[in-house]
Amino acid sequence: MGSYNETFVCKPPAQSPWWAPVVFLQFVIVILGCISHVIFVKLAVVPRNFGRYIRVAFALISAMMLNMLLTSTGAFVITLMNGKFIEDCEISAMLPRKWLLYIHSFGEYFFVVCELLGTIERVISTYYPNFRKSDAFTVYIAIAGVLGISASFAYIYFIRISFVKHLFAIGFGSLTAMEILNGIIVFILLHAAKRKYKNSKDATLNFKFEISQSYSYCRCAAASVIARVFIITFVYLQVFGLFEGSWGDSGFYYVMNILINLYCLVYPWAIMLCHRKIRGEVCH
Q1: How many folded domains does the chain comprise?
Q2: pLDDT tens digits for 69-83?
Q3: Long-range Cβ contacts of 39-43 (<8 Å, 24+ apart)
Q4: What is the domain range of residue 233?
Q5: How many whole angstroms separate alpha carbon 61 and alpha carbon 112?
Q6: Which of 4, 154, 169, 270 has the highest Cβ tally under 10 A?
Q7: Helical H runs in the chain?
Q8: Cα dihedral angle (224, 228, 229, 233), rounded to 10 degrees?
Q9: What is the pLDDT of residues 206-260, one digit of tens each?
């Protein structure tokens, strides 16, 4: 990103050769991440190990994460083509790079929307199974998806275009709020589904199946929620100035993007390895 001095001349950040291995690591993570999502789609999305709505949510999440991996890599390639390890304000102003980051921000927000909608679907399947099977539920979930897409476009404006502090706070705050809400629901439902299954000896097989699906989903999602906590913590430590002056804004955003890409690599494995059947397929 760099910064501007009092005469509005770009002050580029220091281009230390120590960033070279970090750049190499970035590309290794992206390649492994893309391979991981191909495996994830093959083992978790295509087979019927989860319900229809969860598989759709996983497919969308995987698509958004591939989007984030590829667009962030494209932005880094543009930086490298201009002879820099870290972008300065001149590189940040390049239109192709801006559009790549707009698309990246859309994926960053919409994948959390998909996670939250998937979790809500499991809550409704557990407590209101008849409503979950109705046409009305399909309409409501579709409307929620459209609203999520609209909110994702608004997030792009708040984070990447407006440069207004309170809009940035609204955008990033809403993303954090969804992540926290999703995490709370996942852990509550994990224990509730386990308890319900133990107390459902006389219940129908279909009811038991839905409960077991909710438990399996929450068990998998809990691992990804825990992994996400590290990124949120890292970002808010910067927001509150803990890293101020240590590596500059450009260095912070570079490291943050690597952490996000690392999460995109870890996410499919967190889901697959926490699901007993899929874990068996991976290990054998």
Answers
A1: 1
A2: 999 999 989 988 988
A3: 39/268, 39/272, 39/282, 40/268, 40/271, 40/272, 43/272, 43/278, 43/281, 43/282
A4: 3-283
A5: 8
A6: 270
A7: 19-40, 52-81, 89-92, 95-127, 129-132, 135-156, 165-198, 205-239, 248-273, 276-283
A8: 170
A9: 778 888 889 989 988 988 888 888 878 877 776 676 665 555 556 677 778 888 9
CB 84 within 8 A of CB 269: no
First to last CA, the chain: 46
Question: Angle of helix 19-40 relative to helix 248-273, nearest 10 degrees?
Answer: 30
CA distance 231 to 16: 24
State both tokens at 221.
């999602």
Instruction: List CB contacts of 145: < 8 A, sequence separation 6 or more.
Output: 113, 117
Residues forming a β-bridge with 10: 4
Cα gap 168→180, rounded to integer Å: 18
In sign, the C-alpha dihedral spanning 68, 71, 77, 81 is negative
Condensed to tens digits (0 to 9), the pLDDT of residues 111-134 reads: 999 999 999 999 999 999 889 999
Q: Give the chain's largest Cα–Cα span.
A: 76
d(C-alpha 258, C-alpha 30), whole Å: 9
Residue whose structure tokens are 């995109």:
264
Write down the pTM of the prediction.
0.87
Return the structure tokens found at 37: 């999502």
- Say which amino acid occupies 147: L
CATH number at residue 106: 1.20.1070.10
The DSSP H or E segment spanning 222 is helix 205-239
- Least Cα distance to 27 among 76, 61, 68 occurs for 76
